Amino acid sequence: MTPTSLYSELHNACFFYPAIDNHAHPILTEEHRDRFALEGLISEAQGSALTVDSVHTLACMRAVSQLGTVLKIQDSTWDSVKAARAQLAYPDLCNLFMHHTTTGIQCILLDDGLGGVGDFAEEFRWHDKFTSSPTKRIVRVEIVAEDILKSLFKSPTTTDTVSIFNSFNAILKESLTNSANDENVVGFKSIACYRTGLDVLPSADSDEDILACLRDVLKTLQETGTIRLAHKAFNDHIVRMALLVAGKHRKPVQFHTGLGDNDITLTRSSPSHLQATIKAYPNTDFVLLHSSYPFTRSAGYLTAVYANVYLDFGEIFPFVSGEGQRAIIRQVLELCPTNKILWSTDGHWWPESYYLGTIQARQALYAVLSDVVTSGEMTESAAVTVVQNAFFHNSNKLYNLGLSPDLAIFERK
């Protein structure tokens, strides 16, 4: 790594400029602090692939070292990190790893639509204690749609599928519009990648396929009392409705792309599948989440050729090794305009996720950009601007947050 003294201004920007976390999730309540295996901090795997295999990755070994340093553990191991955090009072643990004087996070944009959040995770306002600007919400559209269908089924006024479909459309449009007008909501998110894939059709030939899906959804709901929308024609319809409302109200729509747990179909998680839909909705801003890894170059192409596409470089911290993270950022910068890259932690459940998501991103950006400056391809001043935009100004503008960077964020406790 290039010595700090050579590029002190770049080092200062990378490690001390305030940040807007453009995509994160709630933290578990104290009562449920051990609800999920901590290995989920460093891997999207499930079952033994998570609890047995993930601790042998370079990503885990690096996390152990970094968390051990904060927890003041000598010769730390994964087990010693778990033991040390278990000894800390939960408020102290959260403050240690999430407070803005540790992370530099000024504002969090929170997707609070994860399943069960209302039962075992903190509500979005709770997270304000760790930032100097208020937390804002990202609304997950598929969950809104599921809740509407549950409500329609509980109090049915008709069993006619067409009438139910019309009622659903009216209620969903109203709900999304209300969210778009809510000062606490700054954007929407789709999990189409998890449910039916990113090959969202830009338009439907007719409503017949959608109605057939709806009949299947309602049949399952009637038989089991549960609902999980994974019916392509109907899911695509929901996404299209969200894109229309979002475009009208200038609210970005985030899409999970690439890296995820084993519920996704990897071959349908590339953002390249969204190309036709991106072209069909030029007034709606698309945010491709999670660096679209391992399809980062495809995402970079889309940001380069479509004015309404942005790329988030999150979740790879800490799920990917340090060298992998640097390689991904280099791929992001191959094509992506630097005014269209957005940083996030994808923090969730555990306070440590916010810390690792921040410190590793700061380290990776400094390593990559200092190399670029050394090669003579960019001045240090230009690199500083890239960092400041990536961490703060690009998200501030895209989500219309109206914030000014809190330059003293690391100095106040």
From TrEMBL:
<dbReference type="InterPro" id="IPR006680">
    <property type="entry name" value="Amidohydro-rel"/>
</dbReference>
<dbReference type="GO" id="GO:0016787">
    <property type="term" value="F:hydrolase activity"/>
</dbReference>
<dbReference type="InterPro" id="IPR032466">
    <property type="entry name" value="Metal_Hydrolase"/>
</dbReference>
<feature type="domain" description="Amidohydrolase-related">
    <location>
        <begin position="243"/>
        <end position="367"/>
    </location>
</feature>
<protein>
    <submittedName>
        <fullName>Amidohydrolase 2</fullName>
    </submittedName>
</protein>
<dbReference type="Pfam" id="PF04909">
    <property type="entry name" value="Amidohydro_2"/>
</dbReference>
